[in-house]
Specification:
Blueprint: H1 2-65, H2 88-111, H3 123-141, H4 147-168, H5 207-216
Amino acid sequence: MADDMKVSVSDMLLTLTGNVSDARKRLAELENQKLKQGQESILHKLGEHKEQLAAITEALAAMQADPEPEPAPDWPGVSPNWSDDMDQAQARELWDWLTDWCHNYLWPIYAQDVWKPCWYRHTRVRIVLTALRGAHEWSYETTKVPPTRALEWEFRFWPQVETLLKRELKDCGQPRDGEKKQKHPVPVPVPPDPPAFTAKDFTDPGFFDYVEKHIASKREPEKESGEKDSGD
């Protein structure tokens, strides 16, 4: 009976030793597996970082090669100046820019009661209307602007220009309009022909000749390199 007990204890010790050995092997395998997984994770993340770095490098190279345009300034810039050294094309563009807005917007909506058809002959009126038109573009025609700009144009800029128009044009008009003083000659219609215009019209018949003479007084546009004269 005692011998059987010894054999059993010996067998148990051998079995236990084998189990411990197997456990160590499995533990070593698990540690190696975890180490391998950790290495794979690190390598995977390193690869992702390399891809991101490559994308950033490519984007930077593209920006340097073709930089994006700077955003438009909040203010449109200096108002066009009639005393600038402009050429004939620039002068015509300025006349068209101002006249189109005055005729189609300012005059019919705001200024008929204070307007006179000789407005274009008054240099100061023309300068102030140009600035007013620039302020209108800044207040209404640019995108994403606060409503306070429009209110400033309506309650500050336009009322001041309206006062100026009343003062500068108060003595202008045709003789039949009852004006006591005439700042400049105006065409008088001969009866029985109907009046060519009245003091309430946007402009008088001399407007186009005046504009063309003003444009002709400016220098000719500079020719681009390689452009030849028509007579060559």
